[in-house]
Amino acid sequence: MIDYANQIVPRCLTPKQRQQFFLPPDPSHDLIEEGIALAKAIQIEAAIAKFQAAKKLAPCHKFDPEKKVKQILLPENRPKLAKLKFVYPRNSLYLS
């Protein structure tokens, strides 16, 4: 019954919750951390790939990999992104 419930309503536990329940670390969280680091290093395609891999490994993650990268990017990196032809959406937080 629990397996059936997990299939219907999967829930990702945070690393802290996994630790509280004495569960092993979830590899998808490592991929997310790597994706965040790559996004901050302006390695956009690699970051998106890491986030996609995390979602594939744990479908309970509810985020769009491309949007997550855009949220992480800092405004001071905009000149570097312009060289990469990275397009910000019109309603982006980074446009002033």
Descriptive overview:
- It is a single chain.
- With 96 residues, this protein is mainly alpha-helical.
- Helices cover 57% and strands 0% of the residues.
- α3 runs antiparallel to α4 and α4 packs across α5.
- The chain is elongated.
- The C terminus is likely disordered.
Low-confidence segments, given as residue ranges, are 88-96
Order of helices and strands: HHHHHH
Helix count? 6
What is the tally of beta strands?
0
Highlighted features:
single chain, 96 residues, mainly alpha, 6 helices, 57% helix, elongated, disordered C terminus
Summarize the topology.
Blueprint: H1 2-8, H2 15-20, H3 27-40, H4 44-57, H5 65-72, H6 78-83
Summarize the structure.
The chain is elongated. Helix 3 (27-40) packs antiparallel against helix 4 (44-57) and helix 4 packs across helix 5 (65-72).
